[in-house]
Design brief:
Radius of gyration: 19 Å
Strand content: 35-45%
Number of strands: 13
Number of domains: 1
Largest sheet: 11 strands, antiparallel
Number of helices: 2
Structural class: mainly beta
Helix content: 10-25%
Length: 269
Amino acid sequence: MKALFLLTLGAAALAGATGEELTQAQIDDIIQKFASKETEFARARENYTYRQTVRIQELDEGGAPRGKHEMVSDIIFSPDGKRTERVVRAPVSTLRNIQLTPEDEQDLRNVQPFVLTSEDISKYYVRYLGKEKLDEIPCYAFAVKPKKLEPGQRYFQGIVWVDDRDLQIVKSYGRGVGLIKKGTDNQFPKFETYREQIDGKYWFPTYTVANDTLMFQSGPQRIKLNVRYEDYKQFKSDVKITFGDEATTPPTAPSSTSPSSAPPPAKKP
């Protein structure tokens, strides 16, 4: 986000990961396996519809809200099988000192619900931090940092927690990073994204939260961000469908699954 008078997020610091003695070969094997599982999950998620609700608040010096941006949209499939976003509700923004930028839109779509696939893992340094429990779920903790920033691309930088049984990310904490044009006062919040098991197999993003003070050139601005991803429903299709790509075979009607409405972090069933 950038300032008009501009978006980085206060989140709890990482709880110290407890050390577990693993060889580098074991660590590399875990990284490759969880990247493979994340690839499988990313393909599965492309065949789900869901509702996304984004709320951003500006807070004054005392912490009281003084401006808000809200958008509710459904990620759906059109009759011709194209994955698209349909805005359900978007009241007029009352934000005074910040505005959303294209980089913020990329972060909302791709960085905050971060997925580290086998295709993308070569773009990141991944460092093992240790073993710890999240809501009684044993996890491997990894620090993740992009190796190189390419123009027009956004990346995740922070920490991910990987379920030691399912080898999927169950929580991420960090921020979106990328190249910014010189002279642009564009700041980004730290955030936490939680996942929950949907259909008993994959861990889907269900909640992102941020509460941070962005240090703009014109002065500090505290913001709060809440994003909910809910009402996941599987869309049955025999082809892989990606955002904006057209399906090659006619899809069938969707079938319902259990909605994800509980606040994070979620326990395994």
